[in-house]
Every structure is written in structure tokens, then in C-alpha cells.
């Protein structure tokens, strides 16, 4: 198995957490004899500093020629005053568009060992394991016409257009159904079909597609009801399928379940090249202190193995390793609740050791 990975550490804590994710991937490669090649490139603030652009051509070309892209985070306070299209974040938006991924996958998992870090009660979050599948290239964020105008009486108006085609809905819904087949077999499709025509088309299309997946149970929820159930009874959900805007809001809401932004992973798939990144930003307030939680970046690397390399077992080993390290009582500062905290590199090292232990146990089991 060979995999060419472009690593884009980016700004702030990005380099600190991606270094740990790469180390875990190297551990997996070493155990199984795989060849993962890593090529590092600049994006975001460091790319502006070194190359005058938040997404240099060389970075984009390397990403397009790779099998997968692993990104840290972008954003640095010194560039906050630049116009939006020249800021570090613009590089990430350009990259996402260029890679063409239309399905954003964001797991929201409550780890038993840190369930008391969630602002929700432990009995509410216990056992939660949701996979959000959010449509990423359509809807209100991309629809035309859009913009500002002036009415005949001189007043300003602004408008955006929510638009979806059947093809756009079908391709992302397919990702959700296929993911559910490998999980607990349930898709909840979120819309506002009582008000919006785009949602009516969404519901019709998803319902029709469900006939191809008789082993998956489909139910529909209005977005407002979904927002409520996510907080009151998140265990209701397995795979949640949403359009772009609803997904943006609901995934941030669900993030509170896990207790720390540093735990959250994401994958963007469907395009030529998958993009894997922790959900958090560059966290300038803790950058350089070596205290960032690398679990989100490491879990993103696990998603990379699953979606870009078909290495499901190896992905699960990494996810289990994170869980085992937490259960053994190790914490970074964000989830330590004032207790002893491990540094970023120590947490990465512990997860590498746990991955090796899990692989050894599997080997021993098969050898018996
Ligand atoms: P942020 O996610 O960087 O930080 C929010 C809070 O969470 C901070 O207190 C931070 O210390 C903490 N935090 C985040 N990740 C953590 C981790 N791994 N371990 C421990 N604590 C962690 O969001 P922000 O402060 O709103 O934004 C900072 C910069 O990041 C801005 O420039 C923003 O535009 C950018 N940003 C980038 C991305 C991305 O690259 N995908 C996403 C969000 C924000």
C-alpha cells in the first residue's frame, strides 16, 4: 500500500498537531509495511509570509497530484486586517474548492473518559456517536444571484439564493447512506420542507434514493427540531445528512457534545483528492506552548486512512488508540479540568504506543 500525502501544517497550533498526526501515520506504516510519502507545503499565514499568497501555486499543484491532503489550521492575527480574499483563510477556501470535495464528514463522538468535559449532562452525552454528512459545494453559500443592490427609494438590499439540483442532492445523500451501511444503519435527513422548495426537492430526492438502500432506515427532521434533539437526546442519531447552511450550524452545535474543539476531526470527500483536517482553528492564544490537543488532527488522519486508502482496520486502530489513551487517564490541558496535563508531543507519543499495542494484540490473537 502506497499513499502520497501532502501535509499543510499552516499557522498557530497547526504545525504542532499535524506533526503528531504524521507520527501516528508513520507508526501505522511501520507496523504494516506500508509506504506513506509525506510532502510538506505552505498554506495560510506562513504562505503569505514566505510566498506572498495564502495558497501558492506550488502548494495547490502538489495537493492536486497527491492521494490525500492533511491540513492543520490557518489564520494568524497579524493578517486579520487584510481584505478577506487575501487573508490566510482565503487559501483554505480556495483549496477546498479546487479539490472539489462535496461531502464534509464530521463525527461527533462522546468519549466515556471525558464525558464530564461536555457542558451537557453526562447521562445525555454518554454513548453519542454521530456522523454528520454535510453538503459542501451548494446551497446558499454558492447560489446565484447574490449581492447588494439599492432600491428605487435609495435603501440598500442584500440577497442570497438557495439552490440545489437533484444531482447535487443525490451524490451527497449516497455518501450518507453508504456510511450508514457501515455503522448502525440509520440516516436522519435534515431539511425545512414545510417552508422551502429546495428542502422539498431535498426530501423527495433522498426518499427516492433510500429505495436503493433497503438495509438503511431513513427518517426526516426539520432543522429546528433537529437542533433541539441534538441537545436533548443526541443518542437518537447515527448519520445526519444536511445541506450546506444547516450543516454548518448543526455541526458546531454538536461539537459541544465532545467537550473540546481539540477532539474534533473532519474529512471532505467526493472530489479527486480527500482533505482531512481537525475542526479547530489555529488557536493563536495557545500556539507555541506545546499544549494543544492533537486528538482532532490524529482522528482526521484516521479518517484519511479510511476514505483515501480504504484502510478501515488501521483507521479503527487509531480511533481505539485515542480512546484507550483517554481511558488510561491522559489528558491535554483543554480536557484536564485543572488536573495533570500532558503536552502535545507526549499525547502523540502515547497514541503511537497505543496503536502499536493494539496491532500487537491483533497479531497475537490471529497467531493463536
Ligand atoms: P480556534 O478553533 O482557533 O480556537 C478557539 C478556542 O479553542 C481557543 O481558546 C483555542 O485555544 C481552543 N482550541 C482550539 N483548538 C484547540 C486544540 N487543538 N487544543 C486545545 N485548545 C484548542 O478558533 P478562533 O480562536 O475563533 O480562531 C483563531 C484563528 O483560526 C482565526 O484566524 C480563524 O480564522 C482561524 N480558523 C481557522 C480554521 C481552519 O483552519 N479550519 C477554523 C476555525 C478558525
Explain the overall architecture.
With 368 residues, the chain is an alpha/beta fold. The chain folds into two domains: 213 residues, Isopropylmalate Dehydrogenase (3-Layer(aba) Sandwich); 140 residues, Isopropylmalate Dehydrogenase (3-Layer(aba) Sandwich). It is 43% helix and 19% strand. It is built from twelve helices and twelve strands. The chain has a ten-stranded mixed β-sheet with strand order 2-1-3-12-11-4-5-10-8-9, with helices on both faces. Strand 8, helix 7 and strand 9 form a beta-alpha-beta unit. The longest helix is centred in the C-terminal third of the chain and has 24 residues. It is globular. The protein starts with a strand and ends with a helix. The site of nicotinamide-adenine-dinucleotide has 21 residues, from helix 4. Nicotinamide-adenine-dinucleotide binds next to helix 4.
Could you give a short description of this structure?
The chain is an alpha/beta fold. The protein has helices at residues 14-32, 45-51, 57-64, 88-99, 122-125, 166-181, 197-210, 223-232, 244-258, 295-309, 312-327, 344-367, and strands spanning 2-10, 35-40, 68-73, 103-109, 129-135, 147-150, 156-159, 186-191, 217-222, 239-242, 265-269, 274-278. The strands form 2 sheets. Strands 2-1-3-12-11-4-5-10-8-9 form a 10-stranded mixed beta sheet, sandwiched between helices.
CATH topology of the largest domain: Isopropylmalate Dehydrogenase
Which CATH C-level class of the largest domain is it? Answer: Alpha Beta
Give the helices and strands as they follow along the chain.
EHEHHEHEHEEEHEHEHEHEEHHH
Strand order of the largest sheet: 2-1-3-12-11-4-5-10-8-9
